[in-house]
């Protein structure tokens, strides 16, 4: 698989001549194969002018119905079943009829449910009005009966000289009103319900409009009710009812003018009015009748909803299969619209790209389509010659695809260009681990990834995981590699949550004096052989820990950076050799390799020599005075014999490499152009100035980039140091500090804070930070040495990609 990744697959431009009767099945089978990219031969036509526009419109209408079913299921609390329906093969025509019938039935159910719910809400409100207004009339009648008795008692009793004058007058008026019907006033009344939030304003407006010539009584309804009007508009499907708190009101008035004003105010406030009678017998009969109708309606509504739920559940079992069929058919007709019709109107002509290795598979697929469609004529497969640049196609699996996506995010490789994805599989997680080195954190990261790997099948079958979870799951193998490399570099750094362990033997150092208590202040001496693997645990916590690790990690960053940049330059050689471009080999690869290694390759050599010899030479001084005073003696900074003369030679080589990159290539390109056009009569111009400026920019970019890119690799040192120090701070200032108290609560709080800080900062933020820095080192410092990344990606017509796209 890695050899497949190194160069993109060999591609060929193919023409297919397919009979009309087998065209649909041929395209369908090619979609199942997923190795043919169709070219649009009708680019000049609009979508409505193409041959299969009507079929696409049919598919779009069916997709609309499926979206409608999905919305209804979501509102009803159902989710489409992902299980496959066995033995439910259905063609597009039958599906179209089926969807039309189901949609008509579902719409009819919704309309009927809406009407029934509207009638139920009205009857429920009417029942509340009858109950509350009946209670008001009953209490008013009781008060009137008590007052009548009081009047009768006063009438039968003898008047006394001690009786108050006002009481006598009141009793006289009451007698007069009761005996003279012409002086009695007939009051009308209006009953209904008004929203509680509008009740105060409703009462105020009524009082002002009638100048106080009304009597309003309101009763609070404890439970909110569904408003027949607003509930009908807001919730047509009765799945999330709109409940409103309301008050029952009764307004007494006198005169038609007052009545008209009251009715208009009720309409303005959205108050629902209902008829009412003051006859107690009729009230009882009406309540009984309304209650009976409510029970009947409730049973009818529940039965309708149950039938609707059963229908939606049946749809849910088949909706995924229907949706997939509609998507497939629509994609087939879209593809057929890209084919041109032969002059005889009997064949469709297709052109497209396919890998060379897929030739036999495509031919077998076309033969099978011809046989299954009972066509008398088979499809014709022929390879076309073209100067057009083919698309780039890499065969990847679930492990390598994520690494290839990292490279493709920068730019798709040109056809047959060396692919950085092969090296990224190792170099990307390794550079991440250099910045993240802690085998405790690496184990935590690996366990989190292990969960994703163990539940891979279940998570991959879920349609929606969320943006962050989906991105994490897609890069699970990258994270696994980063975790494994982090464990490796953590063992080299000897850090487990910043704590060192003697895993590979005892430390090589011990206390200078056997009686000393604190070896870190008195000093250490070497008493055993060198620690076999990684950093000696005794370095941690000493006064010289930071200078030692700083020097180690900074020099290591330079070595890794120079090695990776050299790899990039070497890959540019293989690109040029593969494309038979000798100019790029002699006037780009060779001077670039000389320039980079004359300066920073030499620096890497000095670092290794200094490590091997234990010299105290100052490498900063050596590199600075290599440019300022190349002929001066090095003195104590000399690492080996002949170093001074080697530096002069390397400096001269670096100076020669710059014009070597700049001047020869534009002139040689011009010479090649003149030789190529000397025998022909073409007058194609060669823009020498443009070529020269381009080469000048390329040369300056490389010379300056050699310095800046090498310095950029120092981020490996900086982030590694930051990660180590943060881990040390969390361990010492949070966990150990809390552990020093004898209070259980403080210890628990300290452990919780330590875990939260470790997970939130070190395992999430630091992981993301190191990931982005490793990404930059690959995109900018590594890939710009050889990778052009301006190719076209191979997008085959494939049904397997339909599930990854949005709903049709």
From TrEMBL:
Q: Which Pfam families match?
A: V_ATPase_I
The record's section on InterPro entries has: V-ATPase_116kDa_su, V-type_ATPase_116kDa_su_euka
Its primary localisation, in coarse terms, equals membrane
Q: Any stretches that span the bilayer, and where are they?
A: 430-454, 475-493, 556-574, 586-609, 645-663, 744-765
Select a single GO molecular function from the record's annotations and give it.
Answer: ATPase binding
**One GO biological process term:** vacuolar acidification
Q: Name one GO cellular component term.
A: vacuolar proton-transporting V-type ATPase, V0 domain
Q: Which UniProt keywords apply?
A: Hydrogen ion transport, Ion transport, Membrane, Transmembrane, Transmembrane helix, Transport
Cellular compartment(s):
Membrane
Q: How does it sit in the membrane?
A: Multi-pass membrane protein
- Role of this protein: Essential component of the vacuolar proton pump (V-ATPase), a multimeric enzyme that catalyzes the translocation of protons across the membranes. Required for assembly and activity of the V-ATPase.
Q: Which family does it belong to?
A: Belongs to the V-ATPase 116 kDa subunit family.
Can you name this protein?
Answer: V-type proton ATPase subunit a
